[in-house]
Amino acid sequence: xxxxxxxxxxxxxxxxxxxxxxxxxxxxxxxxxxxxxxxxxxxxxxxxxxxxxxxxxxxxxxxxxxxxxxxxxxxxxxxxxxxxxxxxxxxxxxxxxxxxxxxxxxxxxxxx
Length: 112
Hints:
Elements: E1 7-14, E2 17-24, H1 28-48, H2 54-81, H3 91-111
Antiparallel strand pairs: 1-2
Helix pairs in contact: 1-2, 1-3, 2-3
């Protein structure tokens, strides 16, 4: 039986650059989904802002996700007091943004 906490090495492409990661096997599907979403966001910014390079578009995507994470964190305490039927479910978003944060931290540490 597979251990979901088993660490695996994968390489993901973000904005055309490879990033080797060591992650738990259980996190791999969500990491791959997040990478796809990041690349879609970068591509969207590239189409919208044709004069910007990939690094600028990646930075704008990171800022977008960071802003979403900050909003979700800010609204989290309100979720515990309000009826659950009136609030959107942000649990998946928080998980994705946390994984993106980890990816960016890893990439930044690698560049230093």
